[in-house]
């Protein structure tokens, strides 16, 4: 898809009325997810904060406007059993309209998930793959969407199919970037499959540029020091970093199958449809990742999705 800046600058003030919509946001206890929770609830949405630490989530919720429209639920994406429990409860409670796959960890030493997957790949990609697959049929309403949060660094990634657990070679930073490529491959493959099935669900990717969140404080001290220095120069306030994701989640003209970025200038964020960069464009790679993800999670996303109601 070619680059196309919006006709005018879109801000959080442009979020359409969200009354009657339920938005599920992973990793909503801090940073971008928490900010988006507040903005969407303020515009009338019921928001489910899907968090790994419920006490932290409740403290964060209490400080938000329209807290009565916000619910905190436990979801630990690194653990596929927790993903299944969370999804089953959401389905039992009637589903939702928008799923924002936002949670992420990065730059952390190698460790395995309860199911034996490398934890950054498990949290950022496999957990969201399984969650989306389990919830797809429960995303309803006039304009259902899945928005997956990636990073502008994704073109630097690869998918090491021969060493997904990082047993033979592992770099914390590279492993993170690889998961952000996986997010792009997944979001675009999901869009292709949804379109082929005639589904009303849109699948979009969005990234915040560099936003000053707790994210940059993860990892070894040398990397944190570097990230903080870079963030001082090119980092954005959380509110600005959230704008492309909010646009992808709510703007009527946000196109499905697109990567939404922050726009051409550092100073002003303008949600922009970015040209997808290689290897994000590689449909063969995306198909292979999808198959491997089905095998590793045991989740086969439910397609086709019934027409919206
Ligand atoms: N900040 C940036 O410059 C930047 C740039 C590019 C992309 N991103 C992406 O933006 C997204 C949000 O990050 P952020 O910047 O807002 O950082 P953040 O403040 O650290 O937020 C990440 C959230 O993910 C949650 N999380 C981590 N592991 C989880 C798990 N196993 N289950 C459920 N939730 C989990 C964290 O929970 P806790 O609160 O319990 O820690 C936290 O709330 C990430 O996907 C990140 O890759 C950020």
Automatic annotation (TrEMBL):
Species this chain originates from: Polymorphospora lycopeni
Keyword Electron transport: no
Protein name as annotated: SDR family NAD(P)-dependent oxidoreductase
Source organism, top-level taxon: Bacteria
Keyword Electron transport included in the entry's annotation: no
Keywords: Oxidoreductase
One Pfam family, short name: adh_short
